[in-house]
Amino acid sequence: MIPSKIHPIVKIPVIGALLCASLLHAENITVSPGTTTTAAGLDSAGLLVNGNTLYISDAGTTVLFDDHYGLAYLPPDQPQTLHPVTIEGLVHTGDGELELLERLDGNRYLLIYNIDGCSWAYEGRLDEATLTFHLQRVLCGTGALSNGVLQGIHYDKESNTYALAFSTAISPVQLYLLEPDGTLRQVTRERVLGIPAELLAPGEDASFISHDGLRVSARLYLPAPGLGFQGPRPVVFYIHGGPQGQERPDFTWFSMPLIQYLALN
Predict the structure, then answer these.
(1) Summary count for the chain: helices (H), strands (E)
(2) 12, 18, 84, 263: least CB-packed within 10 angstroms?
(3) Looking at residue 131, what is its pLDDT?
(4) Signed CA dihedral, 158, 100, 70, 183: sign only
(5) Could you tell me which of 50, 61, 56 has the C-alpha nearest to residue 21?
(6) DSSP 3-state assignment of 211?
């Protein structure tokens, strides 16, 4: 997996800004329910002031509670105690990691996951009383924005609209607009020149359990039915990734044209 920037969700009084800045680089921090650990899963964070409260939440995730990354909360009355935040409303299956948390507006946040190489994006809100993050909307991972990689996403506050850049194994990056009512509009028509899309291999999840019980993320690219291949075909194993990188269904990446060439032939 490609490691993401790691920061906690933090809400403290503005006067605690300096305390927070030192906390993020402290040697030890108390992790509920009472253990003390080195703050290796924390990094610097963006500062967002809202009234009398300072939010530190830009790209905020931590590995202190979950190796797949998760959210944490620093209460103002216990500035050296991290509490895990429960995330509810996930609809994806498979395995992967939380890549990004970004504040959109008010108490609305964007969460982006990499699940077995495919991108999932959600919009949600934090309930501070219960330390629960409620996902309320799937932005990427279903329909036309599935089985691929989110290359970029931007939220426009005035129009309440998202602009997304998304690629798959059979398509270069396309630009989309996601309207407030859920309407998705594709605004570009990039394509692979000279090869009909129906002859390319979109790929599918082929994750498996290794001999030692470890789950290994993998994808399988089969020749398209339109090519008319019959019977057994040669198999090419392309071993790549972990722990710092991963092969993903992304036509913009250098190896995908090679994968398509092999599937076509």
Answers:
(1) 2, 19
(2) 18
(3) 87
(4) positive
(5) 56
(6) coil
